[in-house]
Amino acid sequence: MQKYIFWIYSVCFYKSTLQDMSILSKIFSNPAESLSIFTRDEIDEIEARISERDGKYFLKSYSRGEEEKQIWSEKKSAPEEIVRQLYLRELLKKYKYPKERIDIEKSVRFGRETKRVDIVIYSEDNETPHLMVEVKAPHEKNDTEQLKSYLNADGTPFGVAINGRSMLILYRPYPKDFDTLADIPMFGETVDDVLSRRRMLSDLEEPKQLKEVIQGIEELVLANSGFDSFDEIFKLIYAKLHDEKESMENPERPLEFRKSPTKDANKTKADISRLFEEAKARWKGVFDKSDVIKLLPEHLSVCVGELEKFKLLGANLQVIDEAFEYLIPDVAKSKKGQYFTPRIVIDMCVRMLAPSEKERVIDTACGSWGFLIHTMEYLKKKNNWTSAKMSSYAKQSLFGIDFDEKSSKIARAMMLIAGDGKSHIYKENSLDSSSWQEATRGDIKGEDLLMEFDEYEKQQQNEKEFLFFNFDVLLANPPFAGEVKESATLAKYKLGRHPKTGKNIDKISRHLLFIERNLNFVKSGGRLALVLPQGVFNNTSEEYVRNFIMEHARILAVVGVEQNSFKPHTGTKTSVIFLQKWDDITNPRTANYPIFFATSKVPFKDTSGDYIYRNGDSRNIDNLQSDLLQIAEAFEVWGKEQGFSFLKQ
Q: DNA methylase adenine-specific domain location, by residue (predicted)?
């Protein structure tokens, strides 16, 4: 039996609260996340208006009465009041509405029933409602149906639903007919003024809660449109990406992804459909030539009104990831075991494997291309690359495979958003290369990525069956769900045979077969990082898998990931295993060697699956509450002490 020396590493890291937000931290578990549509300066100004008496906290209102609103005591808190006051501040300071036109908690009658509207802005007569605002706490969904009922009851033309994380603006052109707007009118403006505004690329906002924006338009129109939400949203996303690319290449060009100023939904659909056709021509192979936007003009207009103000190119990839993952139905994700890897986990993996500029990297279950995008960004930062250099590297050195058509679309979109659109993305089954398209086979051969053998028969077999490859680095989170039962596929794998009898087995868990396949994708001395369910590491029944791994590679490290990491989709306990294939020069085989073990103790997500940030309103990875990057740093120090060749670069 082989013996191993275990080097144990554990990080202690305590949750920090928001600086200068101590009161808000009592009201919100995560203020930066809960109030993400507001800036830090806006939040600071609100907090300066808070006072304390007898252990209770009060906020001086921005409304005409300037009432003091209780926002917190030991028994009760009022998060929705914070949201309301932040938006009242915007109405006064950004949109220039006079304070005497603004009222709060206005009564509205619905037959015999009376309800209170959170904010009302009156028209010039100071009696007719011009705009109504329905406020919710950040943990609640925006109630668009309630907002619609308010607008219909008083014939109000504009409405806003806001919860601090996202905001939906409705316009009521006709009774019981609603459309969206990218913004509300400034004081004295009409809806025509809003629609006639021309936006340049620099005018667009960074999306901070794109998932909730998509949830809003899905609730408004997509759920009842009769079409697949994913397909239709992605057509719009590609049309918008193309529009932004055009304006990036021509800075004087106004953006064209917008609602028509004529208020004609058919004209809006014609304009967006043209952009989509141009996007298909720009990025061939993502959509079929026959694909068209299927949404009805009035439904499309609602979607465009919500999306047009956001900038996608260069956006925070974590925010985009959350939105794209939401679009894939939960049933499909559970059935396939496909869950996007959190970017903080990806970042740890990339830093620990430390790919170099000359190495070619693959993800065999690439999903949204998270591992590959972070590899690109890691090298850009390390080498101070220009965007052009980064794009050139991606085109030459990054490869991704995913069988799911929606994942392939997501991967291409993520690369476009990150700044590259020409990388190697293959819609194939990684486990069964016999089904690969000729174009994929030709590309792999043309890049000299097939392993070569001295023995003629092995060489011929590999050229025919594509079994062994020459990649330097592999990072993957293979799907956990499902089994492989096809006898022809199982026959190609050593793990497809019974560990004791050597006979072919009837079935095997998909992620176990991925372990062998991934080892075959990298050359001798190549490195791997695999996200796997905890059972692979400690189930007695899977000891033969662990022995197989150790036969073919050195275990560099095992990092246990905190249990909330893949929530809200799954609570499966996972770990990441880091491997280096045996090689006579770079990694000579040995029976005794130390292994780096670490367990993450600090959750970067709460039990609901929302990210937890340390301070401020930054949603960047570096601001996440987590100990994973400290673990990566500790591994790098330890690995250099061990003399790992890839850490000497």
A: 319-646
